[in-house]
């Protein structure tokens, strides 16, 4: 999934730091999980907990972190004969979609030309509506377990960026159709790593949540800039919730009460970071941050040395071309950094 600050290209570097600093660790916490790419990756080796304030992120986590295998959909198969719901949705013809009542077509009526916007073409928006409404109907009828429900919603959400008429975020849509927007929408089948451990996912304020968690490794990848993530990903949030929100403005933004992060506020980010570090009951703490973020390197160093063992503080600079997929000029000074510190905490029991 295209996502601001996605760490897919940094996974090897993060693992290198962990292997060097925490060779005996057994648990890993991704407190700002986003697409859950980092949590999924480290699920290969650790008991994982993940969290994010955005619900669509929680859905992705619930499907791939907390689930320990791809669900079997036994009740759905027994009652409907559908053996593979992902194939079922991806195989629907347009005439099947038209059976959905117009008043239930929120995506077509809101984010497509039918609703005066161009995030998706009309047929793809209707495909999303059909899948989301059907999944809600199956759940209401008792045909899906919680694991199965979240897995299917996650597959629906993951498929949207492949056909979205945007530059990667949903703060605005293009006024002309991009090539990808002509593709037919399909659910994206998600793989689930089995590790046999009690993995957990959360949908909470990470600073508050840390007062109730403890473990070995805490990975912190907070927002870097002043743009609230809900504004950038409101379409995916609505796909996950499917709650028929009262949208506003040309871009169709959804209400954002209770979902604003202090890490996106210049006057609040440092106190929020300090509170997070104070609450953290983890021995090994790794922060991923960019030199164009709201916090300066000096502010980060001061906070981490204050709340951890100062002599353990270390900065790792990630080569730019390892992080960005596009070519850049040598004069562009943007750098991605990993900060490490060890904290004195009671041993996990």
From TrEMBL:
Pfam families: MethyltransfD12. Keywords: Methyltransferase, S-adenosyl-L-methionine, Transferase. Its EC number is 2.1.1.72. One of its GO terms (biological process) is DNA restriction-modification system. PROSITE patterns: N6_MTASE (PS00092). InterPro entries: DNA_methylase_N6_adenine_CS, MeTrfase_D12, SAM-dependent_MTases_sf. One of its GO terms (molecular function) is nucleic acid binding. It comes from the Bacteria. SUPFAM superfamilies: S-adenosyl-L-methionine-dependent methyltransferases. It catalyses: a 2'-deoxyadenosine in DNA + S-adenosyl-L-methionine = an N(6)-methyl-2'-deoxyadenosine in DNA + S-adenosyl-L-homocysteine + H(+). This is site-specific DNA-methyltransferase (adenine-specific). It comes from [Clostridium] celerecrescens 18A.
